[in-house]
Fold each of these.
Amino acid sequence: MLILECPCCGVKSEETEFHAGGEAHLKRFGPGSTDAEFEGYLFMRENKRGVHFERWRHVNGCGKWFLAARDTNTLEFFGFYPAQTHEPPQDIKDKISAKHPGWSWREFQ
Amino acid sequence: MSTRLSNGGRLVNKAKPVEFQFNGKRMKGYEGDTLASALLANDQMLVGRSFKYHRPRGIVASGGEEPNALVNLGQGGKFEPNQRVTTTELFDGLYATSQNHWPSLEFDVGAINTHFARFLPAGFYYKMFMFPRPFWKHVYEPFIRQSAGLGKAPKERDSDTYEHFYHFTDVLVIGGGIAGLAAALEAAQSGLKVTIFEQTHHWGGRAVVDGAEIDGKPADDWVKDTVQTLEGMENVTIRARTMGAGVYDHGYVLGYERLTDHCPDQDGPRHRLWRIRATQIITATGAIERPLSFAGNDIPGVMLAAALRDYVVNWGVSIGDRTVVVTNNDDAYRTAIALVDAGLSVPAIIDARTDGAGPLADAARAKGIRVEMGKGIAKVKGGKRVEGVAICLQAGEGAVIEEIKCDAVAMSGGWSPVVHLWSHCGGKLIWDEAQAMFRPDPSRAPTGDKGQPFVAAAGTANGNLRTAAVLEDAVAQAKAAVKAAGGKPKAGKAPAGSDAEEGAISPVWLMPQGAPIQLRMKSWLDFQNDVKVSDVQLAAREGFESVEHAKRYTTLGMATDQGKLSNINGLAILSDALDQAIPQTGTTTFRPPYTPISMGAIGGEARDELFQPIRKTPMHGWHEANGADFEPVGHWRRPYAFVRSGESVHDAVMREVKNTRRNLGLLDASTLGKLIVKGPDAGKFLDMMYTNMMSTLKPGKCRYGLMCNENGFLIDDGVVARIDEDTFLCHTTTGGAERIHAWMEDWLQCEWWDWKVYVTNATEQFAQVAVVGPNARKVLEKLGGMDVSKESIAFMEWKDGQIGGFNARVYRISFSGELSYEIAVPASQGRAFWDALLAAGEEFGVMPYGTECLHIMRAEKGFIMIGDETDGTVIPQDLNMEWAISKKKEDYLGKRAQERSYMASPDRWKLVGLETLDGSVIPDGAYAPAPGDNANGQRNVQGRVTSTYFSPTLGRGIAMGLVHKGPDRMGDVIEFTKGDGTFVKAKIVDQVFYDKDGEKQNV
Amino acid sequence: MKRYSVFAVAREALRYHTGWERAWRSPEPKKKYDVIIVGAGGHGLATAYYLGKNFGITNVAILEKGWLGGGNTGRNTTIIRSNYLQDPSAAIYEKARSLYETMSQDLNYNVMFSPRGVMMLAQTQHEIRGYQRTAHANSLQGVKTEFITPQRVKELVPIINIDGPRYPVLGALWQARGGTARHDAVAWGYARACSDMGMDVIQKCEVTAIRTEGGKVKGVDTNRGSIDCDKLGGIVAGNTSVLTEMAGFRVPIESVALQALVSEPIKPCMDVVVMANTVHGYMSQSDKGEMVIGGGTDGFNNYTQRGSFHHIEETVRALNETFPIISRLKMLRQWGGIVDVTGDRSPILSKTPVEGMFINAGWGTGGFKAIPGSGWAMAELMAKGHSPLTEEFSMWRFGEGKFIDESVAAGVAH
């Protein structure tokens, strides 16, 4: 039973107030992309045991999507940040580095 | 015999006698008794039968760890199986029966198993019952099922209610012994919000039974004072009869409060499930005494030493007149002393240690009790009751030195901290060699949402067995918890505890040490599941070396007590058999709940009508009053048909179709989703959401649109109306409103966050009625208001105005093929508008219709239905709907996916109409076989039916289906399964069966 | 191998069961095997078993980081059925179900397959149509199922409430030869048979790296040393992505927690397995008498084998409505396992971008019932390079858009 903190409205609340939305920072590939690019975008997943970036929506709250960094092995959250971004904020990356030196996830480290 | 003593019993109120029944026998107890103490006071030592061998079983413990004494409790809607007598408070009229025997507790035919025990070792059923093959299902399994199980299944619906309770606290203390109370008091003095639970109805735990002193007063006085102080503090929530049931991630805890189990006639919920978020949790859950493994340790009258003491001190009940105490530690001496002090006889204390007993042993000797060091019990004599014990050397192989007559045995193998709650969420344990116990490893506590430790064990639960250490630990843990929860601990010291000095324990896992197989196969580890020392040794010998394998192979610890008495003893035996250290063997996983909690409590208030809320349209009440046969659609209920008296549902549907096509029908379409999409980029956004081009739609016009997911599959459809330059109203399917709204938000927030668009779900703001049929215009004209002529509002146009005095938005759209207006009015006006239409429509033959009529009419017209023609694997191209896919757009959701090889294949099944040759209706879901079998021996298939109905308009069965290259095969006849092994022939035809040119809807 | 039988038990009883041999050996790993299977769960052990039995390949090691059968094989609700809609699913699940029928005799180990019947309740019009469609499909697939009336449902399950105020029972899809089996015994029976064929079941042996050369698999590194192989099968439900990352490729899989619970045991009161998908709950009664209840999956990636409690609440609530008597039973234990979920929720039995490496994964919430069929098919794929049963379950189907979607009929949970 997770506790999350919505970075949009600031509410810290029960998991049941949120909806999990899968892996974060996926780049959309549309018409004109190669089969491999499209398959990668739609299906291939990091699914890390450890540091993971993911999407959540505060569905029973402010309704906003946001992103989170979480350890799938301990369920620890390293932080929450708005969905309107292309990479995790530095302070969250620093927090992860403190706990998991040398971590990487897709192109981030 | 066991009986009530004339003195003692700190918990019973002898002024208040209570009557109850056990197996039809009327018995007497007192207020404050548990069912266990009351049964024992009535000399009811035999209370149940074991799971496998149906051995006679008595009460072993005094709390939630009891493995044997489970009864059927109550009657009718209050009947409950497997109720533990040690945690059942006595009340007047209590009705209990014993379990798992036939025909009676005293004489159980199943007990024959005990004579075959030698043939039924651990895992025997894996090795036999294999031949003949059908016998497992028809003979062996029914027999095994019948003899397994414990209590009876309830027969009636639960007559009680339950509730859930949310609670937030800074520090949660679980356990109301002296450690819990000291920790709670310490934490509370910091001003933080503190909650403390005690699972029984009395506070103080063991210390008050064992006569410890705190701050110079008897522990009992200190406990009373502390409870009173806590009850008076505003920042403290204090609850007895409430168990900490489970600790979950991020500080989520379940509390299980038993509100009326002890007074079932009282109104109100029976159980309350507390859903708690705690910043810090202190588990002050004490310890459980371990049995010793000697032959016959399961015979009624053999009891945990501390439990025996509890019955004497707490309830004034003696288990026997002559009690032999057997131990490997000093604590059990307290039992001997308590018994002698109560005027009972203790013929001997059998101490397996060769030396090391402390002052308690001296005290016992001083009371004239014989103490035998280095000895053990070779065997307990007796069947349904202890008759005596045979004594041997602990270091030997069980040669009997002496027999002692007795009617009770008090055993103590040492104490195991209750580490369950610590462990539920990942807390790790360490093996404490000196005390022979697993205790929490404070460096590996469960961690929370920020990676911080959030559980601490305190007192005995943390491996401290002496009063002073317990209190010091409790206060230290409380100070640390306060700090971790962001508070400031108060300066000050722990209360000073004192009790008798104790000598060291010496672990004894088998008695005697060299017990031969004949004794080991009578030495029980798990009493309820009948697992013996020999079973665990057999498991090890057969290669079940992992503690999880041994558990599962022998069923050790899998009974309703979840191994509270047996786990440590079992894994010590396993370790010994594998010749490895106990920590190397490790423990099995501790899973919630600590002791079983009721399904009723887990479900809470959500029963019957409250199980799931029903969404209702403004006209729902009218439907209910007018024969609606409802069907669930999402969370809504929609009328399937309006059935009149004397009609079948089918008759009603046929009537509704005919009337709508001939006269006038009304459909409550309020459940259709209505999303308002607004902003300068709304058109561009909808161009991405729909396969169609929406940005070119003119204000005042409607367009039917299709929506696909990124995988290319159809997910929704509906009519989009452009309200003004910046505003669109998108209709969705009934089930789609929330889903599609969320879908749009996802794309707007996460992908095209710079696009200027807002979306809102206005579904419930409007009631919507489809006015359908040749008389549709007439009824609206009669009601008066806006001009609804073809010239004023053409097909696929919409208009705002007034109808019959109602503010209305009128859409000229049709899902039936008839002249049709869908009219939205404010939800608050919906019922009045509906009534007005019915009244005005009377002369035009108005009849409301339901969803089945809607389905038939759309099928007659060849319109697709999301969920029928689509199933999550169908793309618009399969439905020949290329006309709805804009060729001009570079991109829309699903476009790239539809370019993949399998999606673009010419071999896909495509939509066609189907007409049976004999006019019958093809069954729902029918498949069309093709010649031959595939590589897996399955019949090849070439299509399937997606919608199939009897058309009252055409007087025959009509259907749509997806058929391999269907549109190229017009006129072909193929077969469909009828479901009974036969087939029906159908011709591939155009999917539009009625009014192919659309003349009727366009008048 | 000494055969198990009632006579063997009797003979051993006379000498106090001192003569039983180990069910499986506990060998040290060799330097090289023809085939290494990573993961000694049901699927991995079954694959090894059929490699030996059907193809004579016995120079096989099955590596297990924990204890054999300790993953989802030992954590599921033991339901066995094959009433699937899509042809490829029905084929492999029916193969599995039919192998379960004779598994006890084949393995000389009583896995207690109990063909007591499985019913899936239809509680909406949409579900009725969906299950009728499945019944029609099954009739052409050689899977015996039928759609039954509410009255028949009530006869088969007297404790069910068919007139629930929210979702009355409108019928059910019934597979009479579906049922349950003893989950641990399936793993143990296969392990014993594999060991008997000379294969090495090596527990507490964790793979830390996969070695390749020129795109071809060479072997694995483990905490017990390096082991070479010609072929490698990755059959590690819940941890597939972790393993494939070692081999340098991604898979269309996410790992989530799935939960289950049991009640305290009671005397027999329900003889069949009931699944109620509209309200999300399913229940059967074990031979011990416990009501075995399956819950839902979490929406977020998770490797902890713990789930969120609200799923338990939702499931129990639904079952209290469906079977009112259980309200007065008590939950004895709840637990979780980690399941792989693929892009279409159907499994992957496939070659991989690494030559000689195969994966069997993504069974989601429905793997137990498939064990023997999955092992049979996987062994054929690994031995011959292709199998009609695995043909459609390739990991490349997602890129082609060729899905095997079982949720289409009526949101059928596994």
Note: The mean pLDDT of chain B is 96.
Amino acid sequence: MSLDVPAIRAQFPIFERKINGKRLVYLDSAASSQKPQPVIDAMVQVWTHGYANIHRGLYTLAEEATAAYEDARAKVARFINAADVGEVINVRNATEGINLIAYSWGEANIHPGDRIVITEMEHHANIVPWQALARRKGAELAYIPVTDDGLLDLDVVPSLLDDGRTKLVACSVMSNVLGTLPPVTHVAEMAHAAGAIVVMDAAQSVPHRSIDVQTLGADFMAFSGHKMCGPGVGILWGRRDLLEQMSPFLYGGDMILTVKQQESKWNELPYKFEAGTPAIAEVIGLGAAVDFLSGIGMAAIHEHEQQIVAYAMNRLSEVPELEVIGPGPTERGAVVSFWLPAAHPHDVAAILDEEGICVRAGHHCAQPLHDRFCIPASARASFYLYNDNHDVDVLVEGLHKVVRLLGR
Amino acid sequence: MSGDLYREQLLDHYHNPTNYGVLEDADIDIEMDNPTCGDEIHVTARLDDQGQIEKVMFEGQGCVVSMAAASMLTEEVVGKSPAQISEMGLSDVQELMGGVRLSMGRVKCALLALNAMKQGLQEAGKR
């Protein structure tokens, strides 16, 4: 089931580009992935041949655009095995999806003295909305700690759930820094047994492996299109019974059934949560991305990435003094963050850039996690279906150059 | 573009910074960080009778750009008045660094030490 990487790469026009005269080695897909031609074509097709506003017009173009938009939603629903397309809400990005839950579900259901539980390995998108909600409501925000190995310390979880004050547990399905794949389904079982709902940030998982929301254990799950070969849109999936009970997040056109001078009635799901004109071409582009990934096969993509990450961790151990943070290759996805005592991550990224290599440097929107490991920042290489072991070799060569320049 | 960032002159200042450490009896004592990249700097300085910079020292951790800029600035600002320093900007730091071109992401690194000095002088002026 190995991937034909050259054939995959040939579908991404960006790989024709040279960076500083070198072949582009793109190792920052955890931040945002590159886009294949079919996704670009789908969006160009909408704008050049099939664009109109959706859900309104009675003319041919509007009907075509509406059908394409709703067809994309159905593709996404199938991709995550949602029971019902009404549970798939188009938002701007995963961050907006999490904010939607915090504002809509959170405002109605979190009360003074309640507890919200998150983990130390969250992206800021899954920290700050809960911090703000806890502040607004006088609730407590508690963290499931991360062990030195970069795993969730599950022994602590019962003490955070047993008193019945916890109303919501939010966790990442895969850490964007450590790559850790925590046992989220187990965490969800514990949370549900304690009467809490579970929100999962799947921005790093949906692009890389098959996710089934009917067995995952989440009540809500947010992810981003731009990390999965698609454009800048996000998806919030939620259980219908919960979404039905919730008030809208944004108010305006399209989310209403009727509007009177003093009151309005809300539209049905998912439109209740899609106020205003959405990113029509982008949603359709995401549908094309789902087709593209499904055509290659999520199991094959996952297996390919597991092989690269194991190879990368092995080869990175050759670089003097380099320390990888997080668990071993079998317990992580295709992300490797590392720290070189002799070189600031900014310098690592800048020197690698001279070699055409794109890595992320900084705290990767996870400052509390870096505090936990007592490092100010790290450099991160992340892999996707268009990367191969040769990219890892180029990275390691580049890191040897960093050590030559900046090591003492 | 970033190629000349790592030439010898800057690397020299990075590996062997001038005026590295903490000044005793400092008139200015300020810490500043750049939370987006984790750079930290601690600047101490003494003023002479005319209120001009007599000596500056710094310590901290950060990338080549922030540390080399800090090292070079500690030499450059000696004898300057707070007013002169307040007028310094990115172009002055770039010139000090041999006309290096900086990408947008590195501008904050280059300015960290200068901004710390400016704020330190401002705070000292208020006392």
Note: The CA atoms of residues 167 and 196 of chain A lie 4 Å apart.
Amino acid sequence: MQVNEYKPLIVAFCCNWCSYAGADLAGNNRLAYPADVKIIRVPCSCRVNPMFILRAFQRGADGVIICGCHPGDCHYTSGNYYTRRRMALLFSMLDYLGIERERTRLEWVSAAEGAKFAATMNDFVEKVTALGENKRLEDLRCKR
Amino acid sequence: MQKITRDVLVNKAVSLLEAGEVKAVLGWGKGEFSYDVTPTVFESADELRENFVWNDFCGANFSKYLVSKTRKIQGKILVFLKPCDTYSFNQLLTEHRFDREKVYAVGVPCEGMADIAKVKALAGDGISAIDFTDAGLVVTTLYDDEPKTITYADALAERCVNCKSKKHVAYDELLGESGEVLESARFDEVEKIEAMTADERFAFWQGELSRCIRCNACRDVCPACTCEKCVFDNPNSGAENKAPATSFEEQMFHIIRAFHVAGRCTDCGECSRVCPQNIPLHLLNRKFIRDIDNFYGEYQAGAEVGSRAPLVDYNLDDLEASDVFDRRDTE
Amino acid sequence: MQRIGVFVCWCGSNIAGTVDVHTVAEALKSEPGVVFSTDYQYMCSQAGQDIIKNAIKEHNLTGIVVCSCSPRMHEATFRKTAAAAGINPYMVEIANIREQCSWVHKDMQTGTEKAIILGKAAVAKVNLNTPLTPGESPVTKRALVIGGGIAGIQTALDIADAGFPVDIVETKPTIGGKMAQLDKTFPTLDCAACILTPKMVDVAQNENIRIFSYSEVQEIKGFVGNFDVTIKKRARFVKEEICTGCGACVEKCPMKKIPNEFNLGMDNRHAIYIPFAQAVPKVATIDPNACNMLKKGKCGICSKVCSAGAIDYTQKDEFISEKYGAIVVATGFNPISMEKFDEYAYSQSKDVITSLEFERLTNAAGPTAGKLLRPSDLKHPHTIVFVQCVGSRCAACAEKGKEYCSKICCMYTAKHAMLVRDKYPDTEVYVFYIDVRTPGKNFDEFYRRAVEEYGVKYVKGMVGKVTPEGDKLKVQASDLIANKQLHIDADLVVLAAAIEPDKSARPLATMLTASMDTNDFFTEAHPKLRPVESPTAGVFLSGACQGPKDIPETVSQASAAASKVIGLLVKDKLTGNPCVASPNELMCNGCSTCERVCPYGAITYEDKEFMMPDRSKAIRRVAQVNPAVCQGCGACTVACMSGAMDLRGFMGSQIIAEVDAICK
């Protein structure tokens, strides 16, 4: 067993109605993805405050992914549309500050898309692993 | 140099104050130095005649003061607003932050304000007097025998070089004339940063933000930051955390602040004006403004009262978060 | 400080096969607040639940964490368990270590490590949980139906049949709506009046139904179960309860050149009028813009001839306030204006008409007594051109038309064409179409009959221009299949105008805080699963106000809406979801940002007096959330800059605690 193998820490915010159920379906179908992914259940993707994302990064997360219902399928009709705007702007800002853009992602995963959930997580973990540890958000204010 | 004179402003304020139409006047007052103009509440004609200032250092935007002053002062308040201030004024009205009935807004034209940092860079420290002449700012310092003349163009603040509008979008009465919305090059700097590599961008912002001393001046002056209690002062918000340099607050303050004002920021530039560390904070806000314009159609906060800010709106076919980057890469 | 119990489930080998449950239970013992931790084979079993109940009592637990399957499986079970043992059901959190851990990870070490972290996150959250109680609100057992067309009629009848009082508000002097104007109905060709008017009579005779005709909704306040509505009953200058509808006044009225709305202006009515013979209520109405008595104080003939003494020239608008538990919107549709469609010469020639006008022309009670005569010279037309999709499916002409398909035109045009050919076999009938869309029971068969049995000439292609020339209409069109230009000398051109929501819908939506799409159709709470409910609780949708619909669809939706209303009105009290937004008034800016993102209209504002930090007093505008209306999505919590708005059960501090626990 490799002792020093780098394991990223991934926080996934999943909407209760679609993506969290999609993750459950991935489990029902035994579709594996890395254990680095830790899911936090939220009622709707629009409950995800950019502060939660930055907090996760600050506490050592290497990647943060937000999953919600597909546009048009929001349990609350419009929540994911707000999420889409908020995250588009936030991600663009993080990129502007020089934070690697692969560390953040917004995906639409329905309750029927267990396979998509697993594939998305596998892909995300792979991309974040390739980047390595998240230093920049922690270091933004401290010039070395 | 400002075209409209101090006398016109003072006379207007005095006449309304003496007629009892307003109870107080929110305007620029004398500070310690001639360039050090202080926002002041005037309650008598004598105070106005004595202490009111109108010159090229009257950059302060008073819109925000209306939130607290309209609550405290019984009766109407006269407020002087430059064109860019009127946008903040409207934005605050959109957000119901003060009672319009309690304000008498007087629009004043603005020829652009001077940046004291630029003046000091050209004239040196130890400024003892500044005279405003047709030729420019005549600056006397403690160390030079001869005063130096600096043209207004050389002294013009960055936000005024890139002035977005000379048009007053709100007022009860206008002194002088209102101008037009202008084409400006205000996004050029943003584009320059966008064109950098990620490493360069990171280095740039690390260089800028590492100077932050968390004095909160940018927040305290910002007309979009009028929260009754700021999340950064609230122990239960999860964002509050004073002191240690590794804490969340210290690092994320500027991102969260920019996000909180995104779609509401009128680009008045007060944050950069007051930053004692000269961090170009407006470049964060302008990034959001530019993205909003590009992604969701042009939007100027405060252009009209009651408009729906882009972050509380959506279209069914808005671009996806992942397309933000694809779009830029193919540009 | 909480006293938390942790219960780790093996789920047989489902969890225990990949997660070392003893290690998890042990590891979580040292988490803050945890005073008890154990594991068991099947926590959801009776024995497992007893372990939880006993531990709650024995260790005085204030909160519990169950590490088990997905909360979507057994959260409700464990909440009940907790409640049975005397603690608030919302003091329970589930760590999902089966679907999201043991089932997707293969080796014991990673599975166990992850399960511990998920357990820690749940413990961190429970530490901040507070007991929650669902709010209750009473239900007023009365429904309001806005719109008295076939949609409103059907909804009202169904609700009334279930025993609840219903009020119908209709802007016109009579109920009946568009269907009352139609001649025959597809695909069965039974006459609209024959099937509609008995229903109108049923409405009039139903003890549970009140009709407010010639009325409109003025104001709506309140929320699900408790709406306060003000209805403006416009003055009709006739005492409704006395008028017998004999029509003597109408006969004698000297002002008889008023364009008749019911026949779309193709003939005239009097200043005092009854829209049509079977109107409900069958009472006369005086048009104040046409009546000489009301305008100039001269005349008064109707008053003299009315033996019942029902005429009252001094009548004023009346305002009625009533409470309702549910509101059904059935405001229907109208054909769009043809004024901008110059290419079809609608404004230039009387013989270019819309399909609805055609309905009146063929209706036995219409201006021509059912004889197909063209409006200009009342001659029998020999060549008729029907143009489909006028203003529908028109993405390029958004300024005058609509992007969507109006859905009903293909079928009614087939009906019109068929009826013409049936009654007047000497008439040539052309139908120009983009596509013929006939999904529906017996619809395609109907259309095929028009083509195959009745010889209607269907041409795929659009009409480019209609030019009046002499007594003919020169129709220039393209035949896309034959790939040639056609020139037809027509006597009558019928335009299948797109339909749009009634203009009253937009202000009504604002009053209801119900959402609309860009075309002003009401939005449903879920496009597939909740098609007859508006996102605003207690507001239901019936008929074409939600989207273009034919009669059978309208009636099914009307009954569906009624069943939803009945389901609401049978309840004595509404129990809410306690996981709703709640504002901290001290931090609220009153900025309306949260209100703008709320899809349910759950947020309102109030001016309240507060003590400011300097001890002065100030009136501030602060947000109020109606827990009966809020559904708990949390959109407002992120829109709120100051963080004044929080979501119970998913508080910012709770989610941050989870983040911290995971990232530690």
Note: Chain B touches chain A through 53 residues (CB under 8 Å).
